[in-house]
Amino acid sequence: MNSKWVQTFGNLLKCSQVALVTHVFPDGDAYGSLLGLKNILEQHGVEVFAYVEDKNSNGKFSFLPGYETLITFDSNTDRQFPMAVVLDCGEKKRVAGGNWIFEHATKIINIDHHISNSFFGHDNIVSEKFSSTCELIWYLAKRFTELITNESATCLITGIMTDTGNFLYDNTSAQTFRASADLIDKNADIKTVKFNLFHSKSLSNIRLLGYAIQNLQIILGGKVAFLNLDKYTMDQFNVSYEDLDDFVAFIRDIEGVEVAILLKETKNKQIKISLRSKSYFDVNKFAQEFNGGGHKKAAGALSNENMESTEKLVIDLLKNYF
Amino acid sequence: MNSKWVQTFGNLLKCSQVALVTHVFPDGDAYGSLLGLKNILEQHGVEVFAYVEDKNSNGKFSFLPGYETLITFDSNTDRQFPMAVVLDCGEKKRVAGGNWIFEHATKIINIDHHISNSFFGHDNIVSEKFSSTCELIWYLAKRFTELITNESATCLITGIMTDTGNFLYDNTSAQTFRASADLIDKNADIKTVKFNLFHSKSLSNIRLLGYAIQNLQIILGGKVAFLNLDKYTMDQFNVSYEDLDDFVAFIRDIEGVEVAILLKETKNKQIKISLRSKSYFDVNKFAQEFNGGGHKKAAGALSNENMESTEKLVIDLLKNYF
Lengths: 322, 322
Prior knowledge:
Two copies of one chain form a homodimer. Helices cover 38% and strands 18% of the residues of chain A. In chain A, helix 4 runs antiparallel to helix 5 and helix 5 packs antiparallel against helix 6. Chain A contains twelve helices and twelve strands. In chain A, strand 9 and strand 10 form a beta hairpin. Chain A has two domains: 196 residues, inorganic pyrophosphatase (n-terminal core), CATH 3.90.1640.10; 117 residues, Diaminopimelate Epimerase, Chain A, domain 1 (Roll), CATH 3.10.310.30. Chain A is globular and about 60 Å long. Chain A is an alpha/beta fold. At the A-B interface, helix 6, helix 7 and helix 8 of A face helix 6, helix 7 and helix 8 of B.
């Protein structure tokens, strides 16, 4: 391991107090790395304050050990931290409570796996060779194997499983599997993780998927799968905008389909364009046509046109590619 | 490792000719272990004849390296084998070409991971501590690491991924992840495996799933999800009986559902009852009410009543359990 990383992680273990923070709209890797690292540091006697923007933002991850200890930013505090760790954030503007944490911490350590990371920390432990920030935390902590408890193992494997689509995305490496094996040896509560992540789909969400499939369009010679969902339909099925992430991945898995597109109407009548590709199509590049972006196989953009116009625009533009 | 296993596997490597066979209606673990072991033995100079009942039985696995070399049983041959290996078969009656292979081989080695295995071989390498027969083959061969090529690694990881539901079933252990890591290090073509197993769902199958969800019944206080599909509907969507395995697992994943049931009409008008449970319900026991069986969380049975009567019977019986 990079000797600078060893030194940085060692310094962290020596602190008396540390603040941890992750990105806005935290996902499994954000919560997993936040709570996993918190638990590891606590085993070493560090007092840890783990912050999220909104404590009740995502009940989906409330099963994680330590979730109840999360706190929100308090702008009236004069608490200063000798050290703050920003987890799973590629850029400064995505850091939850950004200004607050940068003002209240003497030193910022940036731990992340996004290729786009801008190295905004005083120290940066950043590499895209990890499936997830959780895998990176495992890698840093595994030399101190006694620090990894069943609680932190449960948190870390959650981030690995969510960020790899349960070991299906291209970021799954031999190292990802070895990390998972080690975390199971540390008694990660994999049963609870799987139950909450994969075996608790809401019935209304399933019903909406059934309806959506009935309206699925397969166009451009079978290469493109296209879905749109307006707010009226989502309301009828009692499904919120945020719960539709799986739909676009689901339709990408159809035989012959290279690009999957979901248009969904936001509360304020914009259209969110979600794009996924299977092998060769660069959806990041395509999303730029709408001032959006992301990764080669998963990207998004926002349109201010209505559903009908956005659909026409997207399909017309796609015709140039196929 | 068990010293008897080392001796048995060592004897196999010393043969000049070996026949390999697996179970009828081969799945990913059957094809994977058959072709994986074939390749490993060939690296050691053994001449291998790998048999399947019907060469064209399941095109789904034709991407596996060596698939084209599979042969079918020929009752006119007088070929005798010093050794035959039966892979992934819990019982003698499930061995494809059962009589043929038992008549033509001097010695039978039984390699399997089913808890119900009846130890029918002259030598038996059998343990339910492996997710799959493929994981067991990896375990046997890993001391001879030079024998594992990218081709055999591709075959073996296929069986691991199919038999664990891509690492989601309870049989996924730390060892399963370590086996997968090793096979990726051996350049298993994981991209091709994932493409064929998970990213090539047929459009007609997806359309039928959408239709089925519209007709999904959630009964007995939300604990039971119930689907039935008659032959007329399957024909309309151009989906065959064999392609419906995923549906019952899909509806089991609904929040609050403990038991998922799919009734499907076979060609000869029987009703196949497919049962899955999520955590505590023993579907194997329930299937016995219909003279069926299987595992605690996955079982099946056949009914000679029509769809309507079978549905009534199943639901009435279930009421005693909830």
